[in-house]
């Protein structure tokens, strides 16, 4: 702050020093003026000026120090008290701008809330004809047509489900309900939903669950498993997807392993980034780059870590590590 203060007052300091040097110069040129007394006066003046600077430094920087230490938020209760007319101008400007920002933020929040509610309402409305469509598809006799229609229905269903959870993710903490959850039920329910797609692609499942129960939120775990299975099915062909669960160091570990196209090593660290699709298959317009991003967000809220092992052309293994039961306190206190 001292350096800033000197930089702010450098013109005044320069003027003061220049003025006294000019007085000394005049006394030196004019023999009628005694040089020693004038030098003495200049010396005393410099001392007084230094004392004045120190006093003014404390007085003039108090406001700015408090302003600098203030938290970067829109709370005006802890704003520094001004000591001069110029500081009052700054305070008035800060208050005015903050009030305008609050109004703009509130307006934006209300607009986003309205858009979110409208989209959620639309998704729920669309689910009704989708359910009716699924019932009509089930009544079809022609195998090939039924298979294709079921696949297209499933794609729409999964996209709507992803949108629904994307809107709920920011408020996931309000939606968590931790309970003993049956892994087998969740996994088999998700496989049943994706059954028609799996049949079409010739994909089977090898499931070995040494641990069948975890303490977590059933609804959000279903979403996580759905996204992982969807990804495995999407990039696999005529192969089995293996799902294992076991206990390791007091943690439940669930692995989803496929034999699909895999992920390039340079992409592995980016697959959970929002909007990232792929660098090896960049023209894949079907990919949204949102599935794994939402999966990671949901897993983080449940304190579930996700590890990825993959090689291009050699498949991918997604590993979920659930928190220890003692960590349940950390989840419920969020």
Query: What spatial form do the alpha-carbon principal axes imply?
Result: elongated
Q: Report the sheet with the most strands, covering strand number, pairing sense and barrel closure.
A: 5 strands, mixed
Gap from first CA to last CA: 39 Å
Poorly predicted spans: none
CATH topology annotation of the largest domain: Heat Shock Protein 90
Relative strand content = 5-15%
Q: Mean pLDDT, rounded to whole units?
A: 84
CATH superfamily of the largest domain: Histidine kinase-like ATPase, C-terminal domain
Strand segment count: 7
Summarize the structure in words.
The structure is a single chain. This protein has 334 residues and is α+β, with helices and mostly antiparallel strands. It has two domains: 97 residues, no CATH class; 193 residues, Histidine kinase-like ATPase, C-terminal domain (Heat Shock Protein 90). The chain has ten helices and seven strands. The strands form two sheets. The chain has a five-stranded mixed β-sheet with strand order 2-4-5-7-6, with helices on one face. A hairpin with a 2-residue loop joins strand 4 and strand 5.
């Amino acid at each position: 702050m001292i350096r800033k203060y000197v930089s702010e007052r450098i013109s005044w300091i320069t003027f003061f020093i220049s003025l006294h040097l000019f007085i000394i110069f005049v006394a030196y040129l004019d023999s009628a003026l005694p040089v020693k007394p004038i030098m003495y006066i200049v010396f005393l003046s410099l001392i007084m000026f230094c004392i004045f600077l120190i006093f003014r430094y404390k007085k003039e920087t108090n406001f700015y120090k408090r302003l600098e230490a203030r938290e970067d938020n829109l709370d005006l209760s802890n704003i520094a008290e001004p000591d001069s007319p110029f500081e009052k101008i700054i305070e008035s400007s800060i208050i005015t701008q903050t009030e305008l920002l609050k109004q703009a933020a509130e307006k934006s929040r209300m607009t986003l809330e309205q858009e979110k509610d409208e989209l959620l309402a639309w998704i729920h409305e669309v689910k009704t004809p989708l359910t009716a469509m699924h019932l009509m598809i089930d009544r079809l006799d022609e195998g090939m047509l039924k298979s294709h229609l079921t696949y297209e229905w499933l794609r729409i269903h999964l996209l709507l489900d992803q949108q629904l959870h994307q809107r709920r993710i920011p408020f996931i903490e309000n939606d968590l309900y931790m309970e003993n959850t049956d892994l087998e039920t969740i996994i088999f329910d998700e496989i049943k939903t994706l059954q028609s797609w799996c049949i079409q692609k010739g994909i089977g499942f090898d499931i070995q669950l040494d641990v069948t129960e975890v303490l977590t939120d059933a609804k959000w775990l279903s979403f996580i498993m759905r996204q992982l299975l969807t990804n495995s099915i999407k990039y696999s062909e005529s192969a089995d997807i293996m799902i294992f669960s076991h206990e390791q160091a007091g943690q439940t570990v669930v692995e989803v392993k496929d034999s699909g196209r895999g992920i390039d090593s340079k992409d592995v660290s980016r697959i959970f980034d929002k909007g990232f699709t792929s660098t090896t298959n960049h023209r894949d317009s079907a990919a949204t780059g949102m599935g794994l991003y939402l999966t990671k967000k949901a897993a983080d809220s449940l304190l579930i870590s996700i590890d990825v092992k993959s090689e291009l052309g050699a498949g991918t293994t997604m590993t979920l590590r659930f928190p220890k039961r003692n960590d349940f306190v950390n989840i419920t206190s969020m």
